[in-house]
Design goal:
A 6-stranded antiparallel beta barrel has the order 7-8-14-13-10-15. A 4-stranded parallel sheet has the order 2-1-5-6, with helices on both faces. Strands 21-22-23-24 form a 4-stranded antiparallel sheet, with helices on one face. Strand 5, helix 3 (about 85-100) and strand 6 (about 105-110) form a beta-alpha-beta unit. It has 25 helices and 33 strands. The protein is α+β, with helices and mostly antiparallel strands and about 850 residues long. It is about 35% helix and about 25% strand. The protein has 6 domains: about 1-130, 3-Layer(aba) Sandwich (Rossmann fold); about 140-185 and about 470-575, Topoisomerase I, domain 2, CATH 1.10.460.10; about 190-255 and about 395-465, Topoisomerase I, domain 3, CATH 2.70.20; about 260-385, Topoisomerase I, domain 4, CATH 1.10.290.10; about 715-775, no CATH class; about 780-865, no CATH class. Helix 8 packs across helix 12.
C-alpha cells in the first residue's frame, strides 16, 4: 500500500480511482501550517528560525495521514506543481517526520499538470525528491512578508490610527492605484479641435478623412485649440476642390497571442467576461479539478497558476490536428509556433493554461458545466487553438487628399483604412482591447492618385484631453506584471487584501483608493520610501527567483533585507505625530485641501479668522480640523471634499431655514463621522436634536423640507397588536429600520421609514424574532480551533448583519469579499485584534489565571519549531 497526499478532497477521490486499490489518496486541504499571527514567529536573531502553527483540523488530517502511513510502504507527495505546492509537501513531510512515522519508508514527490488519468499515471512513473530550492524560496518569501507585516503594521497603528496593515507587495500595489488617482486629480484638460470630412469618390463610394497638415506643416494634437480657429479652417475649405495626392498600400500581418498564463487569463476574463480576478481563479480551479465525463471525473484544463507560455509537444501536435481537420490546411502554419516564457526562473515557468484534451470542443462539455465554467473553458480553448494557427493578413491603405483653401494655403487630409485579406487565427479568437487601444481602421474604397473626390461635409469636432483611466483589476495586474511586482499566485490575494482592508473600492469595475489607503500610501512614501519603490520590490522578487533556482542563499537574502529594514523601523520610534501630519498635509494637499472657487487660501479655516486646516488623527482615523482647536471646533470628515469649496461647512453650520413649529434654525453640518442636520444650538452643554444624512443623499442637495423629515425621526408606526407597545421607524448605523422592544428589523430603503404600515412592520418584527430563534439553535458555521494566544476557540458565526468571527465576547464582522468557508485562523486573529482582542485577553487573564496553564498546554500542542 502507498499513501498519496494531494491538496483537495475532490482531487483525492478522482486520483484514487485512477491509481486503484494499491493506493490510499488523502487530502491535506491546502496548507497545513502557517506562521502564528503574533510577534516572534520569525526570529532574525536566531538565524531566522520560524515557529509554525497547525490548527485542530489540520492536526486531525495529518493524524489520519500518519495512521494510514503506519501500514504503508511509501509516501508519495503529489501536491500542486508550483512553489506553494512544494511548500505544502515539505510541511507534510516535516510533521510526519516529527511524529516518527516515516522511519525507513520511501518518500517521493510527483507533480502532474492536469487531473487526467494519463497525466497522473505518467507522473507516478517519474518521481523526484522535494525541491529544496523551491522550498527555501517559499520560506524566504513567507519570512519577508511576515517581517514586513508584523513590524510595519504596528508603526502604522501607532502613528496613523485607523490604518489596518501594510504588506511587502500589497503596499506597492496600493501605491500604483493611489498614484494614478493623483495623476487624475492633477490633470488639467485641454481643448482641441479636429477637422473631419465626409467624402465620396466619383463612383459615389463614401469614406472619411481628417485634416493632417496646413501649408506644409503637420498638425499636432493640440494645434487647433479653439472654435474660432476651427471655424476659420472650415471656411477656408468650403467648396474646395479635393484631389487624391498619393495612395500607399502595405501588406501587414497580425500574429496570435501565446496561450494563457495566470495573469493574461485574469486580464482577458475581465475584459471579455467581466470576471474579477478572484472569480476567474475560482472557476479555473473547478475546471482544473474536473467534471464527470462518461462516468469518470476528468480535469478540463491544465494547472492555472503559471507564468509559462509554452505547451507540451503532444499538446501542440493535438492542436495542429484539430486546426487541420476543423479549419483546413490554409489555417495551419508550416511549422509549430514556439513561445518563450518571460519568466526568469525556468523552474517556475510551467506549461501554459490549456485544455487537457485539445480535441474536446466546448460544445462537448457544455451540458456538464455551469455558465461561468463554460464561458471560461471557451476562452481557454479558443486562445489555445488560435495560438497555433496561421497569422492574419491585412492590406493597410493610406491616402492623402489635397486641396488649396480659400485662403490660398495648401491643405492635406488623410484617409486610413485596412482590408482583411485572410483571417487566419481571427477565425477563432481575437484578443480583448485595453483602454488605450484603438479600433481597427475601416475599409477604404478604391482610390488612385489624381482622382477627384468630393467633400459632402466638412465638420469641426471639439475634443478635450482626458486623464489616464483608473485601473481595473485586469489593467492593474498587467501593470504589476510589467514592473515585475508579485507572481502568478499572488495577484488575486493582493487585490482581495486591498479591498478587505478598506484601502480601495470597486466602482464600475475600476479601483478607486479610499482615503484610508491614500493616507497609508502617503505615510509609507514619507517614512519608508524604499520599501514601496517599484524597482526595489521587483529586485527583491528577482532575488527570490534566484533562490528558487538554487543560485542564492535564502538566509543571506533575509539578513540583507532585515539589516536595513529594522534600522528603518527603529528610526520611527521617535517620530512625532506632528511630523507625520506635516508630511501627509504636503503629499495629499490637492486631495484634502482642494482649490477654492472664492480664491481664498485652500487651508484657511472657514470658521475662524486665522486658523489653518490640517489633517488630525482621532480614534477612528483621520479627519480635517482647525489649528485653533479648542477655540475653533471646525471639523470636516476626510473624503467629503468635492469640487471647489462646497464641502467646507462653517463650524456653526449652513442655515437651511427655520422650523415652523419651534422657530429654531435648521442647519446642516459636516462632522467627523459624516454630514448631519441639526435643530437649534447647543445650550448648557446639551446636544440639540440631530439626524445623520443618509449616504445615498448628497449633503448639498438637502433642503429645509428634507431636513425636517430627518429631524422628525424616529416615527411611531403604531402599537403592536400583541404587546400594545409602540413600533417605531428610524434611521440607524446600518440603515433604515423598524424597532419593537429591542428587536430591530431592516427596511428596504430610506423612504420606507415614512410610509411603512403597521401590518408590514409587525411582519418584519416577527420574521426577525423567528430568525433570531433559529440562530440561537444553530452551532458555529466553522470552528477554527484554539486561538494562538489561548483563551478559547475562534468560531465563525452567522449574525444579524452577516457572518462574523467570535472569540470569547469579541465579535468581528467578516469583510464582504471573504466567505465563511474560506476564513483562515490568521485572518480571524487579525480581525479580532482590530476589534481590541488583545486588551480583552489581558483582562480575561487577570480574572482567570487558570487559563494560563491551558494556554501553555495549547501552545505546546499546536506550535512546532523549524530551523529552516
Amino acid at each position: 500500500m502507498n499513501v498519496v497526499v494531494v491538496e483537495s478532497p475532490a482531487k483525492a477521490k478522482t486520483i484514487n480511482k485512477y491509481l486503484g486499490s494499491d493506493y490510499h489518496v488523502l487530502a491535506s486541504y491546502g496548507h497545513i501550517r502557517d506562521l502564528p499571527a503574533k510577534d516572534g514567529s520569525v526570529k532574525p536573531d536566531d538565524d531566522f528560525s520560524m515557529l509554525w502553527e497547525m490548527d485542530s483540523k489540520s492536526s486531525k488530517r495529518l493524524g489520519d495521514i500518519a495512521t494510514a502511513l503506519k501500514s504503508a510502504d511509501k509516501l508519495i507527495l503529489a501536491t500542486d506543481p508550483d512553489r506553494e505546492g512544494e511548500a505544502i509537501s515539505w510541511h507534510v513531510l516535516e510533521v510526519l517526520n516529527r511524529k516518527g512515522v516515516i522511519k525507513d519508508k520511501g518518500v517521493e514527490r510527483v507533480v502532474f499538470n492536469a487531473i487526467t488519468k494519463n497525466a497522473v499515471l505518467d507522473a507516478m512513473k517519474n518521481p523526484r525528491e522535494i525541491d529544496d530550492a523551491l522550498v527555501e524560496a517559499y520560506l524566504a518569501r513567507r519570512a519577508l512578508d511576515y517581517l514586513v507585516g508584523f513590524n510595519l503594521s504596528p508603526v502604522l497603528w501607532r502613528k496613523l490610527p485607523g490604518a489596518r496593515s501594510a504588506g511587502r507587495v500589497q503596499s506597492v500595489a496600493l501605491r500604483l492605484i493611489c498614484e494614478r488617482e493623483l495623476e487624475i486629480e492633477a490633470f488639467i484638460k485641454d481643448e482641441y479641435w479636429t477637422i473631419e470630412a465626409d467624402m465620396k469618390t466619383g463612383a459615389g463610394k463614401a469614406f472619411a478623412a481628417r485634416l493632417q497638415s496646413i501649408d506644409g506643416n503637420k498638425l499636432n494634437k493640440l494645434d487647433i485649440g479653439n472654435e474660432t480657429a476651427a471655424r476659420a479652417i472650415e471656411a477656408a475649405l468650403k467648396d474646395a476642390r479635393f484631389t487624391v495626392g498619393s495612395v500607399e498600400t502595405k501588406p501587414a500581418k497580425r500574429h496570435p497571442s501565446p496561450p494563457f498564463t495566470t495573469s493574461t487569463l485574469q486580464q482577458e476574463a475581465s475584459r471579455k467576461l467581466g470576471f474579477s480576478s478572484q472569480r476567474t481563479m475560482q472557476v479555473a480551479q473547478k475546471l482544473y479539478e474536473g467534471v464527470t465525463l462518461n462516468g469518470e471525473v476528468t480535469g478540463l484544463i491544465t494547472y492555472m497558476r503559471t507564468d509559462g507560455v509554452q505547451m507540451a509537444n503532444e499538446a501542440i501536435a493535438a492542436a495542429r490536428n484539430v486546426i487541420q481537420s476543423t479549419y483546413g490546411e490554409p489555417y495551419l502554419p508550416s511549422a509549430p509556433r514556439i513561445y518563450k516564457s518571460k519568466a526568469k526562473n525556468a523552474q517556475e515557468a510551467h506549461e501554459a493554461i490549456r485544455p487537457t484534451e485539445l480535441s474536446r470542443s466546448p460544445e462537448e462539455v457544455r451540458s456538464v458545466l455551469d455558465a461561468d465554467q463554460y464561458a471560461l473553458y471557451v476562452l481557454v480553448w479558443k486562445r489555445t487553438m488560435a495560438s497555433q494557427m496561421e497569422s492574419a493578413d491585412f492590406e493597410r491603405t493610406s491616402a492623402d487628399i489635397t486641396t488649396t483653401g480659400n485662403d490660398g494655403k495648401p491643405y492635406s487630409l488623410r484617409a486610413n483604412g485596412s482590408v482583411l485579406k485572410f483571417d487566419g487565427f481571427l477565425k477563432v479568437y481575437e484578443e480583448g482591447k485595453d483602454d488605450t487601444e484603438d479600433e481597427d481602421d475601416k475599409r477604404l474604397p478604391q482610390l488612385s492618385k489624381g482622382d477627384i473626390v468630393g467633400a459632402q461635409k466638412i465638420e469641426p469636432v471639439q475634443h478635450f484631453t482626458e486623464p489616464p483611466p483608473r485601473y481595473s483589476e485586469a489593467s492593474l495586474i498587467k501593470r504589476m506584471e510589467e514592473l515585475g511586482i508579485g507572481r502568478p499566485s499572488t495577484y488575486t490575494a493582493i487585490l482581495t487584501v486591498l479591498k478587505d482592508r478598506g484601502y480601495v473600492r470597486m466602482d464600475a469595475k475600476r479601483l478607486i483608493p479610499e482615503d484610508k489607503g491614500r493616507l497609508v500610501t502617503a505615510f509609507l512614501e514619507s517614512f519608508f520610501k524604499r520599501y514601496v519603490q517599484y524597482e526595489f520590490t521587483a529586485d527583491l522578487e528577482e532575488q527570490l527567483d534566484l533562490v528558487s533556482a538554487g543560485d542564492k542563499n535564502w538566509k543571506q537574502l533575509l539578513n540583507d533585507f532585515w539589516r536595513d529594514f529594522s534600522n528603518q523601523i527603529d528610526g520611527t520610534k521617535e517620530l512625532r505625530v506632528t511630523h507625520v501630519l506635516d508630511a501627509l498635509n504636503d503629499l495629499l494637499e490637492n486631495h484634502v485641501f482642494p482649490e477654492r472657487e472664492d480664491g481664498t487660501h485652500r487651508r484657511a479655516c472657514p470658521s475662524c479668522e486665522n486658523g489653518q486646516l490640517s489633517l488630525k488623527l482621532g480614534k477612528f482615523g483621520a479627519f480635517v480640523g482647525c489649528s485653533n482647536y479648542p477655540e475653533c471646533r471646525f471639523t470636516k470628515q476626510l473624503g467629503t471634499a468635492g469640487e471647489g469649496d462646497a464641502s467646507l461647512v462653517p463650524a456653526d453650520g449652513i442655515v437651511l431655514g427655520q422650523d415652523p413649529e419651534t422657530g429654531l434654525p435648521v442647519t446642516r453640518h459636516d462632522g467627523r463621522f459624516g454630514p448631519y442636520v441639526q435643530l437649534g444650538k447647543a445650550e448648557d452643554g446639551e446636544k440639540p436634536p440631530r439626524s445623520s444624512i443618509p449616504k445615498t443623499i448628497k449633503p448639498d442637495e438637502i433642503d429645509l423640507a428634507f431636513a425636517l423629515r430627518l429631524l422628525s425621526l424616529p416615527r411611531e408606526v403604531g402599537l403592536h397588536p400583541e404587546s400594545g407597545k409602540p413600533i417605531t421607524a428610524g434611521l440607524g448605523r446600518y440603515g433604515p429600520f423598524v424597532l419593537h422592544e429591542g428587536v430591530y428589523a431592516n427596511l428596504s430603503d430610506f423612504e420606507e421609514i415614512f410610509n411603512v404600515g403597521l401590518n408590514r412592520a409587525v411582519d418584519l418584527i416577527a420574521e426577525k424574532v423567528a430568525s433570531r430563534g433559529k440562530r440561537g439553535q444553530q452551532s458555529a458555521l466553522k470552528d477554527l480551533g484554539a486561538h494562538p494566544d489561548g483563551g478559547g476557540n475562534v468560531l465563525v458565526m452567522d449574525g444579524r448583519y452577516g457572518p462574523y468571527v467570535k472569540f470569547g465576547k469579541i465579535n468581528a464582522t467578516l469583510p464582504k469579499d471573504v466567505t465563511p468557508e474560506d476564513v483562515t485562523m490568521e485572518q480571524a486573529v487579525e480581525l479580532i485584534a482590530a476589534k481590541g482582542g488583545a486588551k480583552a485577553k489581558k483582562k480575561a487573564a487577570k480574572k482567570k489565571p487558570a487559563k494560563k496553564a491551558a494556554k501553555k498546554k495549547a501552545a505546546k500542542k499546536s506550535v512546532t519549531k523549524a530551523e529552516g
